[in-house]
Each structure stands twice: as structure tokens, then as C-alpha cells.
């Protein structure tokens, strides 16, 4: 029996060697090595957690690869200092990936969507909100309230589907200061070539919905348990929100902090997207300091997906602690 087993094994090896030799002679390689490489990485497009009686779902609108970090982050630093800081955190210093994460809050009475993503036409890897909503079990028609934290393109791009509202049954909530800034005649008259397309986008995406909008200020409620927090600086009327239910809290800070290393660890670094750099730094420190001191959960629009986590103080800055199961049990 032992001899037979040996002969079978030897025969199998010889057949395999012959096939390999034949493949090599023909300029080929074994079939198993011919499998095509797959681009991108698999991602579950949503993550659901509980905050008291609120069901909170973060949904991916996709991501963009940016071919540089400096001076987008650390504009008031040297390029070398920025690259060194990123390297210390195991990140490349010459490129980065930025995700876009709207948030759905189901209060039990209403379904509320915070920000609407990029919309179509901004690249193949973004504008995926519709697909992610479907994966999470929602249709656009089920959205009762759309909250816009500020009017940058990656937050308002999905408001309209052509000339039709993408969320036809929804009412809308946004900051009064933000709306007044972007729709002012003064801004339109003084706008440079960089601002003109953004103003036009607001006219196309936001202004048609104005008659269904509620304009809020710091401390106003979207609904019971969801309260606006003034976080001006990133834009003139940028808003964050405090969610509270059943003794649990989550702070939705939108773009008060735009990167979990370059901005959260270095809140004093200038960010090119912040329209008022000093005001944005103050808002960033206020929001991050509150989340760290109160030891509550948070979600940020550009934090690593699924964009839910915690913040702890680290020297003069902060550290992002990704959520694992804290809100699941």
C-alpha cells in the first residue's frame, strides 16, 4: 500500500511538472496566476448603530483619491513637517483618500438625512449615495427631513436630480447664516472665478428648495433631541449637531474636522477648505474638546468610513478612536 501511494504521488508530481513546462514553453503561466487584479477595495456602504432610541446609519457617498496632502492640510506648516507627521501615523505624505459620509437618523417618527453627497458628475468613485441608501434599506421617498450642514459641493450635490428634488417628500433644514451668505447679492457681485461656480451650484441645488426650508441658528432643534451647534469657519454658517436620546449622545460635526490625522491631531493646522482659518480652528477645538471631555460618540463627514468613533486628548491635539461595538450592546 505504501508503494502504491508513493507511485500515485510521484505520478501526480510528474504530470504537474509536465504541464508547467508546457505552459512555459508556450509563453504561458499557470491558470491560477492569471486571475486579473481587482481595482479598489470592497466596502460595506453603510453602518448602523443605536443612540438611545435613535437608529443612526452612516452611508458612503464614495471617496476621492487626492494626489497631494500639502498644502491642503498644514498650509501654515512646511511640506516636510506635514509629510513627517503623516509618516509617523503610517500614512503616505504625497497623497490621500478622502471619504464622504452622509448620515441617516431614524427617530422612530421621522427619517432625517444629514447632507446629500456629491451627486452625479463628480467622478466614478463618488456620488454613490443612492446605492448606499438602497443597501441600507431606504428609498429617497422615505426621507422626511434633509439637513444641510453647509453649502460645499460635496454636501449639496445630491439635493437635486436634474431639475427635480431628489427627496421629493422631504422638508429641508439649514443654517440661516449659511443660506444668507451664499445667496447674498454682495457675494455675487464680488465673487472671483473660484467662487462663481460654487455660487451657481447653490442657485441650482439649494435655492429651488427654499420655500420648503427651515432656517436655524445655534441651539435650535431640527426635531426633539437633535440640536444645532454653531461651528462657523469652515464656511461662514457651518453647523454641527448634537444628537441625544435615551441618555445616549452622538455629535455630528460635519466638516469641523476634515482628517483624522492631519487635522484632528493638529487642530491648529490651516486647512485650505476652511474659508476663515482662525474661526475654523476655534470651532474645531471647541467641538473636539467637547467630544473628548464628554466621552461621547461622534461622526465626521470625512472620517475613515464608517466614520463613527471617539476622541481623546493627546498633547495639544486629539486622537481618533474608531468605534467598534460600543453602540451595539
C-alpha termini separation: 57 Å
What pattern of helices and strands is seen along the backbone? HEEEHEEEHEHEEEHHHEEEEEHEEE
The CATH homology group name: Ribonuclease Z/Hydroxyacylglutathione hydrolase-like
Please tell me the overall pLDDT.
90
Which architecture does the CATH hierarchy give at level 2? 4-Layer Sandwich
Low-pLDDT stretches:
1-29
Sheet with the most strands: spatial strand order: 1-2-5-6-7-10-11
Taken as a percent bin, the fraction of beta residues is 25-35%
User: What general outline do the C-alpha atoms trace?
Assistant: globular
- Tell me roughly what share of residues is in helical segments: 25-40%
Quantity of strands, as a count: 18
Reconstruct the topology from this structure.
Blueprint: H1 2-25, E1 46-51, E2 54-59, E3 63-66, H2 79-88, E4 96-99, E5 103-106, E6 111-114, H3 129-135, E7 145-148, H4 153-156, E8 160-161, E9 164-165, E10 171-175, H5 176-182, H6 185-190, H7 195-205, E11 213-216, E12 221-223, E13 226-230, E14 239-245, E15 248-254, H8 277-294, E16 297-300, E17 308-314, E18 317-322
Parallel strand pairs: 6-7, 7-10, 10-11, 15-16
Antiparallel strand pairs: 1-2, 2-5, 3-4, 5-6, 8-9, 12-13, 13-14, 14-15, 16-17, 17-18
Amino acid at each position: 500500500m505504501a508503494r502504491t501511494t508513493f507511485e500515485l504521488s510521484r505520478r501526480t508530481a510528474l504530470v504537474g511538472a509536465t504541464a508547467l513546462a508546457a505552459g512555459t514553453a508556450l509563453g504561458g503561466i499557470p491558470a491560477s496566476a492569471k486571475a486579473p487584479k481587482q481595482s479598489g477595495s470592497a466596502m460595506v456602504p453603510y453602518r448602523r448603530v443605536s443612540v438611545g432610541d435613535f437608529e443612526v446609519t452612516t452611508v458612503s457617498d464614495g471617496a476621492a483619491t487626492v494626489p497631494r496632502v500639502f498644502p491642503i492640510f498644514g498650509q501654515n506648516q512646511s511640506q516636510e513637517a506635514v509629510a513627517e507627521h503623516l509618516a509617523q501615523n503610517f500614512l503616505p505624505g504625497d497623497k490621500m483618500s478622502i471619504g464622504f459620509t452622509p448620515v441617516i437618523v431614524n427617530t422612530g417618527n421621522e427619517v432625517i438625512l444629514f447632507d446629500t453627497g456629491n451627486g452625479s458628475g463628480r467622478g466614478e468613485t463618488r456620488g454613490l449615495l443612492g446605492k448606499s441608501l438602497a443597501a441600507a434599506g431606504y428609498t429617497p421617498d422615505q426621507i422626511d427631513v434633509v439637513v444641510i450642514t453647509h453649502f460645499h459641493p460635496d454636501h449639496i450635490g445630491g439635493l437635486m436630480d436634474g431639475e427635480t428634488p431628489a427627496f421629493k417628500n422631504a422638508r429641508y433644514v439649514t443654517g440661516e447664516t449659511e443660506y444668507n451668505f451664499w445667496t447674498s447679492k454682495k457675494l455675487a457681485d464680488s465673487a472671483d472665478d473660484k467662487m462663481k461656480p460654487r455660487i451657481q451650484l447653490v442657485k441650482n441645488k439649494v435655492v429651488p428648495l427654499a420655500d420648503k426650508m427651515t432656517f436655524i441658528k445655534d441651539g435650535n432643534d431640527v426635531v426633539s433631541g437633535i440640536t444645532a451647534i454653531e461651528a462657523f469657519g469652515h464656511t461662514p454658517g457651518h453647523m454641527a449637531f448634537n444628537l441625544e436620546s435615551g441618555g445616549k449622545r452622538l455629535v455630528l460635526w460635519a466638516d469641523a474636522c476634515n482628517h483624522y490625522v492631519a487635522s484632528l491631531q493638529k487642530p491648529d493646522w490651516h486647512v485650505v477648505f476652511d474659508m476663515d482659518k482662525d474661526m475654523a480652528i476655534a470651532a474645531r477645538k471647541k467641538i473636539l474638546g467637547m467630544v473628548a471631555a464628554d466621552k461621547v460618540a461622534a461622526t465626521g463627514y470625512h472620517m475613515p468610513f464608517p466614520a463613527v468613533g471617539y476622541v481623546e486628548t493627546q498633547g495639544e491635539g486629539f486622537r481618533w478612536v474608531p468605534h467598534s461595538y460600543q453602540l451595539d450592546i
